[in-house]
Amino acid sequence: MATETTNTAPAAPSATTAEITPLPAFSPDLYQRAWASIPHPSLPLIATCHAHSVTVFSLSTLSKHSVLTGGHTRSVRSAAWQPPRGKVSGKEAKRLRLVTGSFDTTAGVWTWDQGRREERLEREIRLQSGEDNKEAEEEEEAEDEWELTLVLEGHENEVKSVNYSPSGQYLATCSRDKSVWIWEDVGNPNPSSEEEEEEEEEEDEDEWETVAVLQEHDGDVKAVAWCPDVPGRKGKYAPPRRYGDDVLASASYDNTVRLWREDGDGEWVCVAVLEGHEGTVWGVAWEGRPKENDKYPRLLSWGADEVIRVWSLKEPEEEEHREGAAGGGNNPWGFGVPNTMRRSLKEEWECTAVLPKVHKGDIYSVAWSTETGLLASVGSDGVLALYQETANTTGKTEENETNGDAPMITSAGGWEVLTTVKGAHGPYEINHITWCKRYDAGSERKGEEEMLVTTGDDGVVRPWQVRIQ
Amino acid sequence: MAKSDLDNANPTVLSVSQLPSRNLAKGHVRKGPDSKYDHILFPKQWWAGSSLNTDPSVWTSDEDEDDDLTLATEEPIDEQEIYGENYDPSSCTYLLSTISDPEHPVTLGQIAVVRLDDIHLSPSPAERLDPNTLTNVEVDLTPTVNHCSLATVIGLAVRVRLENALPPNYRIVVRMKDGSHAQDDQVNKQLGDKERVAAALENDTLKGIIEKMLETCV
User: Fold this and answer.
1) pTM of this prediction?
2) Which domain does A165 fall in, by range?
3) Which residues are listed as membrane-spanning (chain B) (predicted)?
4) Domain of residue A112, CATH code
5) Helices B184-191 and B151-165 meet at what angle, rounded to 10?
């Protein structure tokens, strides 16, 4: 039963075994292609995009919580929860807000209706704290509780992905029109300030400003992801503090990943182009918690070429020597150097690992666990694969048989495959996978135990129990 | 044949809205102004229905009794059936060759845009035992002229037809045959992109064109 974390990589690749078992699917089935399921950062809720709607499921009851409908005239492809703002307790629930990206070229900002949402959230919290109670099963229809409060217009074609920066200050959207837009939430000027709880009763103003339109990709931009706010983001390995901490990664049909940063003068610039994929890059994901606290988070990318890559920022010390940056002190290119004297804003990123190849067909989604560092991937072949980082970082590929009935374990580039599940959604393609916390009655460690949730063309949203030995 | 057709759940003369489908829309009612063609593009699933599975006469009457490839499984789909050489409306096998050209009053089979030799299944029908075994269908199209601007539309129609007609364990690849089209790679990449295909099918103009092309597939 002991589910060990793998923060310290085991010495031998075969020391770890993993078991992935299906849990009952969320009800009801959606009976149509579902694109993605996004867990709320702190509440037991998960939002699934399908057709023109989003269905929110409760992670406590594993059933429908509410539905967002009527806001989009074409399919909703992606969604993002507004991150908790400022110092929060249970009150953060008051800020429940979801942004949707749709093929109808818009992004929608949705707000949960005040009155009824409290009732329902209280129930969620009761359930979350384990006070199971029959009332909770009296699921009411809740379709009117979500209100579309703002439509973000500007993209010329389908919006493919939306993502909030860690503070909630910025929202990124991307589209088939090859552009990435960055919007600033100017309705909440001090998202991180400590507000009085009384003030929180006031509704946020829905006011967003476009701060950047980034058009350097040569093809559809498939996904955007902001670097999480982890210690390493500002640590000694981070790029010199000439510009903002927020970093956005974008994945494209042009086979590249680009990284974007604000240059300190309010301009957003491309600081790196990551080339290596030989097909559409379907997505990017940041390392949620680097093993060494001060390491800069790594980045994952995956795509139509059936490959998952790990990218790392080259440490700035090296750059200093190579480029012979002038001046003494700890921060030679820091404050005091005029803009024009600064070195190029470019950052050097290198592909430091290619994961063992499992999938035969497009890889649509990969999830990187903040808790355990494990990776899970899904794609058009219907396979769910689980990977673990090993001590072997030499990049050489190993294949060896494990004892017992475990499948052959392949390791490559410092990663090994722990296990795979074939036909995880029967014959259907799997569009999305995510890690999230368990809150259902079957979990012995509610709110702590992690599970996987997959979303497929069959309209099934399925949780999976993951056991690591 | 005529007798057994009457026993079919699907009538002999299929209307467009009854084209076979792989979509799992069972019991689900789509709403909204943008879904008026959904009955064409996303009709109900058929393989779980009765036409193929419960009517062995469709197979036994026409096929060699010893042909295990055809009789062994419920879905003995081979290249010929995908192409649709032997017209048999009752068996829903008439998939590609009868799609209309978007410009001319002929079918894709008639102008050899779709050719039986350019349809490939893997693994071959004999190897497929489990209905969940993924099967790749590769269709190479030969546009009539190498700069044909409608190549993408034709490819899309072929893909839609196959997605709707084949069970969900089929993975469909529609390509322009090597050298047959000036922008092979671009067109192929587009046709292989699930997200773009999905978005294209929500475009009313494109939907209208494809609906018309598929009208002759009855």
Assistant:
1) 0.79
2) 13-313+348-468
3) none
4) 2.130.10.10
5) 30
